[in-house]
Amino acid sequence: MLRIRKWGPAALLVAPSLVAIGVFVYGFLGWNLRVSLSDWRGLRATYDFAGLDNYRRLAGDTRFIDGVQNVVVFTVVFVAGTLIFGFLLALLLERGIRGEAFFRTVFLFPMAISFIATAIIWRWLMSNASGAQETGLNKLFDSVGLGFLANDWFKADSYWAVASVAIAAGWALVGYIMALFLAGMRGVSDDLREAARVDGASEAKAFWHVIRPMLLPVVMSAIVILAHISLKTFDLIYAMDAKSRKIETPALYMWFTTFEGLNFSIGAAIATLLVLGIALVIVPYIWYSVRSERRR
Amino acid sequence: MSEKTSEGRAAAAAADALTAELAGREPAGVRLDQVSKHFRGGVQAIRDVTLTVAPGEFVVLVGPSGCGKSTLLRMIAGLEEVSSGRIHIGDKDVTTQLPQQRDVAMVFQSYALYPRMTVRGNIGFGLRMRRVPKEERARRVDEVAQILGLEHLLDRRPAALSGGQRQRVAMGRAIVREPQIFLMDEPLSNLDAKLRVSMRAQLTLLHKRLGVTTVYVTHDQTEAMTLGQRVAVLRDGVLQQVDTPQALFHHPVNLFVAAFIGSPSMNFVHATVDAGAVSFAGVRIPLPPGSPLADGGRRVILGMRPTSLSVASEDGAPRLTVTPAIVEDLGDERFVIFDVDAPRVDTDATRAAVDAQAEDDALLVPLDRATFTARLPATTPVTVGEPMAVAIDPARLHFFDPATGEVLQ
Amino acid sequence: MTTTSETSTRIRSRWAPYVTTVRYLVLFALVCVFLIPVYVLLVTAMKDPAQVSPSRMWNLPDSFSVDTFGEVWPTLEPGFRNSVLMALPASIISSLLGAANGFVLAKWRFPGADVVFPLILFGMFIPYQAILIPMRELLTDWNMVGGLSGLILVHIIYGLPITTLIFRSYFVTISDELIDSAQVDGAGMIRTLVFVALPIALPAFAVAVIWQFTSAWNDFLFGLVLTSTDSWPVTVALNNIAGGQVVPFHEAMAAALLASIPTLLVYVLMGRFFMRGLMAGALKG
């Protein structure tokens, strides 16, 4: 009785949100799974059970497999590059530097603008036009005598294409990773650092032995966040060059096959695989975060 | 100077007005009836506590940290559910009532002042929640502010107050409600030592004036002894003894209470009773006449207060020759610490009680032997390492059963 | 701020001045490289349209001109207005609901709250591709596709995990005694939330609204799926203006800049809260 009176209002208050999330997240995920197991093609929804047909078809679909390879390259370049540069920036800013706020603001601002805007700028920077039409970075390289660096960027015929897109994505997110590292480094109490200094460690050694080990959770967070972003990124690639197979990832293929090809069941199957991929990194991460908070 | 007295007069008048209002209300008592609390996960925080607080009484719950005293208080407030048993406030069974339905006010250890409200807003919040009309609210807040000397701070935010001022605002928030019961959860523990002592005195005065039933929680036995009309000692969720400070000090019912109450702590030693006398470390102390322990021999734990030891004179009292190991000078008196050639008393009860007071003064002395503290006048000549004779007052001995820890009478 | 004063008093090694100089040089170099896109964006958008040609991309304009903005604004303006109409209610409502959820999950933990919270969090990370098909089906049924209402609804709902997390993290840090005290003072759950918790949570509110506003404004996928030409949000409009290779690139740049102004303004003016939103998004590192 006391229990109901105590928790009742609380439960009522969160109920609408819980129902909304229940339907729009879990209900929809289930619904999508069901579509992926159906034979729905065309505008009218049909839910006749087709088993794993759609998944089997994807396994033999070169466009899908190319997409998977692209997203792997994209992830590796994007995660590694962003992590390294983010860490480097944090390291440079870490010991109170004059104008830190300015530097932080500069490196973080791309987080505030849309991937569409980012893509538009970078598409022009990474243009592969030549001759009189040459522009962007290639033009810049030419005019400073670094012409040999000029290349086809995202129009290249190799994995370099998707890697170039990863550069643009890294530009957008490196500030975020820098901020994460900075927060992690600042989180180590000054006492600890000073204790290490008094114990005879140099500044560099104090960093290596005292601060670095405490950054492991930050690295984990950063990897998880970046990896899951790279799996779902859609707008950046779409606005860069929607038609190019060289940079197409499953996230885009899903869209094209569903809303242009009207192959709803195949699209749903791709989406389900995306969820699985993301759950693989995210679920352990959430579990770990919630558990370590409860321990505290 | 005259301003000061007029202020004082105003405060007195305000207090009188409040007293008159409170006098209109019948003070209510609290009755705990076999109250228990199990937490999820099986921990039992409170076991079968039965306790009656008389209307208008000031009762202190005291015990080492983790003994369940705060949980018990929060159960009276309605902040913790009762697993079994009943709680009555006045004649009303409030066991299943929510905190907002009970007529209690509480002062928290951290004061829990609402950061975004002014002092006025903080003090008036409880009245606002109970839909007291605006004018009455303003009048009562002003009244209480006057009693506590907060008038000039009414428009400040808590962040702009000192620790002592915050404490008074927290008090004011409780007083203004004119509740049936005050509950206080270590309200003085965040103050510095000096302020704590003066607030202690003010609390006693305030209680005398307002006469509201108060249940007060502390881990500090000095605070408990000075504030409480009665003191309830808790250990591991079990009520040990409820009595006046005098009775607790002179007639503890078990080893834990004996060790917990009093500073410095009571001295304990393993001893043997035989043929009308108790002996340890080569000393024989005749039992007082009529002691039920007189017939037959047995092993006991013997306890004596540091004040029942004195410098030996020639009056024939039993004496102990000791070598002082540490002398702590306090100005007008000194604590002399020495060890005694008898086994140390190391039971759960004594450890629990002593840990709570964080007195590790015995560490430097051999651990297998009993350590005594004597409280002697500062005029006593004592030199560390030089043997001296100490007399024991045979009338002030406490005997405990080594197996159960219960007092033997 | 305090760190700079500390640096000046700390005993430093002989090499410190050189190290600092090198550090500044590296930072400035990185800033320059990092700002290349911004340079291009600004100089292109501000050139006189007559002067623009791809080969002169890196040249500073001979004379400043805002004509290009004038050229693209009419086509961008409807999208811009749609985005304002969509992002404001979406971010405010989502934050209000998040505040209630965060309060309950932090301070009024009903039995089962420990299970519910991670389930809510997961919603923050799902790839939206996986809910597009059901979402379109359901919202078509509800007649909410083609206008702004559907878009607002999904931004509210998919914003709930992050706003809940932001508020929960915030409320966890306030003392339990404050909540207890409000109850003893006679406030129930709702009044404790309204009178005690929410007034303290203004910073969290700023963080949540800013974060939600930014992500709703910058969203593209939902806009693409749920709206028709009239109700395109600014990102979709921008992509359509600047998408083709035939579009003169100074117009593309000017449009991109215009479309980014609101979120950039928020970022510059409220950077501190923006940062906190970012940190919350990373759960607890």
From TrEMBL, chain A:
Record-linked Pfam families: BPD_transp_1
Residue ranges constituting the ABC transmembrane type-1 domain according to the UniProt record: 68-287
Main location: membrane
Keyword Membrane tagged: yes
One GO biological process term: transmembrane transport
Gene3D superfamilies: MetI-like
Keywords from the UniProt entry: Cell membrane, Membrane, Transmembrane, Transmembrane helix, Transport
Membrane topology: Multi-pass membrane protein
Keyword Cell membrane included in the entry's annotation: yes
Top-rank taxon, per record: Bacteria
SUPFAM superfamilies the UniProt entry points to: MetI-like
Cellular location(s): Cell membrane
Transmembrane segments: 12-31, 71-93, 105-125, 159-183, 214-231, 264-288
Any single Gene Ontology cellular-component annotation: plasma membrane
Family: Belongs to the binding-protein-dependent transport system permease family.
Name listed for the protein in its UniProt record: Sugar ABC transporter permease
Lineage of the organism: Bacteria, Bacillati, Actinomycetota, Actinomycetes, Jiangellales
UniProtKB/TrEMBL annotation, chain B:
Protein name, UniProt field: sn-glycerol-3-phosphate ABC transporter ATP-binding protein UgpC
Organism, as annotated: Jiangella asiatica
Coiled coil, from the record: none
GO biological process: carbohydrate transport
Annotated Gene Ontology cellular component terms: ATP-binding cassette (ABC) transporter complex, substrate-binding subunit-containing
Origin: domain of life: Bacteria
InterPro entries: AAA+_ATPase (IPR003593), ABC_transporter-like_ATP-bd (IPR003439), ABC_transporter-like_CS (IPR017871), ABC_transpr_MalK-like (IPR015855), ABC_transpr_MalK/UgpC-like (IPR047641), Mo/tungstate-bd_C_term_dom (IPR008995), NA-bd_OB-fold (IPR012340), OB_MalK-like (IPR040582)
Example GO molecular function: ATP hydrolysis activity
Gene3D superfamilies in the record: 2.40.50.100, Nucleic acid-binding proteins, P-loop containing nucleotide triphosphate hydrolases
Keywords from the UniProt entry: ATP-binding, Nucleotide-binding, Transport
ABC transporter domain residues: 30-261
From TrEMBL, chain C:
Every ABC transmembrane type-1 domain range: 80-270
GO biological process, any: transmembrane transport
Family, per entry: Belongs to the binding-protein-dependent transport system permease family.
Localization: Cell membrane; Membrane
Protein name: Carbohydrate ABC transporter permease
GO cellular component, one term: plasma membrane
Organism: Jiangella asiatica
Superkingdom as given in the UniProt entry: Bacteria
Pfam family name, one: BPD_transp_1
Protein's membrane topology: Multi-pass membrane protein
Keywords: Membrane, Transmembrane, Transmembrane helix, Transport
